[in-house]
Amino acid sequence: MPPLIGPVSLVAVASGPGLVSYNTLVVLGGVATVGFAAGVVGSLALLRKRPLVGDAAAHATLAGVAAAFLATGRRDLPALLGGALVAAVAALAVLVLIRRVARTRDDAATAVVIGVSFGIGLALLAGITARGIPGSGGLEQFLLGHTAALTAGDARLLAAVSLAAVAIVALGFKEAVVLCFDPQFAAATGWPVGLLDLVLVALVAVMVVVGLPAAGAVLVTALVVIPPVAARQWTDRAGPLLVTAGVIGLTAAVTGVVVTASRPGLSTGPVIVLAAALICGVSFLVAPRRGVIAQWLARVRRERRWARGDLSAWDLADADEAVPLPLPAVSHVAAVPLRGADGK
Amino acid sequence: MTLAASMPLVEFHDVTVAYGRRPVLWHVDLAIDRPCLFGVIGPNGAGKSTLLKAALGLVPVVGGYTRFFGEPLARVRGRVGYVPQRETVDWDFPVSVHDVVLMGTYGRLGWFRRPGGRERDLAHACLERVGLADLAGRQIGRLSGGQQQRVFLARALAQEADIYLFDEPMAGVDVRSQERIFAVLAELRDAGRLVIVVHHDLRTAAEWFDRVALVDMRLVAAGPTAEVLTPENLDRTYAGRAELLEELGRAVAERGRTS
Predict the structure, then answer these.
(1) What is the CATH number of the domain that holds B94?
(2) Closest partner CB to A318 (pick from B84, B131, B144)
């Protein structure tokens, strides 16, 4: 076997020598790009406190795919994804409308849109399957994602759209951060908050649509939400957050493709989500400072120092604010065992 | 014709604001014609913050308009700085102190241009003025309330504006930060800026502000502090608010001692 690098050799291992076709490599690259872009765009949605926008858009895409198939009669990916995008945008428009007209809570309106739009999609899909319309086989792969069926051309399209999304974020990064951090200040200093929000939501919708072939309508939202949540554990800066989320999304997407490449019956979406969830879980545990273990260690250390009467146990972030430290109590507590202070 | 002293720096003309069917501010007419420290004082729910937001176009007005330097805000936005209430943002947001102050320069930079050396130097200088230069790299959640408020103040300084609007900059802030913030506000005033501050504490209001407006859903009175904070005006502003009577009494007594 020739020495291959990085994920490529993983494919070789997973699928055995001789099975690594040019097509597989292009698909792998395409889906990796999608994973990266989904993490980047998803980070902004998370920072804008709207992680569920992608969920509403994602569930609606199935109806769009089915409708596009009925309209064109072919399983042509660009056409199907075009239909998915129209459905996603329509669902988000309905979401805004419900919030305005019915003055419902955000999450309730989102739940309504998710349920109804997904129901429509499933009904259309069931209808198509029941009639046995020729060429409809494999349409249900948009439910859970299936990258084995992608052509190199499809993958290039997905990669191109993803790169465009990343480029837009890179261009408007400054604007995006001020919008997400302090919308009132942004509006007061002249930024068109409504327009910026619209672009952000549109980017999320686009990423959900291009993530569809890989992760499917039900799970694609995980590609937009989980990597940013995991990445937040590792960094306190917005720029690194976007990049980290992108890398995590890329890793999850590549894992999905590699694991399912040699197993024709396995959907890609669940593997991607599990990989992302694993990274997220590990991040929660071991991340420095924000991780569970780090926080536990810090608490233990603080309590020990406190018991010794060591004032550096306090986070002296407020030291210049003349926090009245309970000095007499320190020597008193130091004289008793750590847990014994509160009685028994 | 020049923009002579007769042109008010800020003019509220018949501003009326309602949230849904609930009116918040009625027919506010107010002109401020010279640089000063200007306090907007009134009880909770009196519409003080709403007055600032209406001036900045952050809430829709039912009627009336606001002018800055005789112009609509859109034409002079770069000359108007704004500091929202501290609670309006998520302090767990992944940005550093320096990043937030840098945002003050974004309006001037315009679309897609990244802050460069000049902006970074300015942000650093603004942080020094509020005494936070040491904490520039820290995530904003790891600050005390007073420090967070000073970050917002530094961001406003970085806007390099001529008129500043502050929404409750002293709320939930320890005494030392309050003094520091007030010192910076006074510096701005001394440098010829107009500083408008929404404030709820009558006692400090009497000693800090050159001029005040008493607001309780309408403009009760406005002018030099000593002329406006009279027992009659305070009574008209805070009437029927038993929980504030004690504070009111203290403020009036204190004013009586100092004048």
Answers:
(1) 3.40.50.300
(2) B144
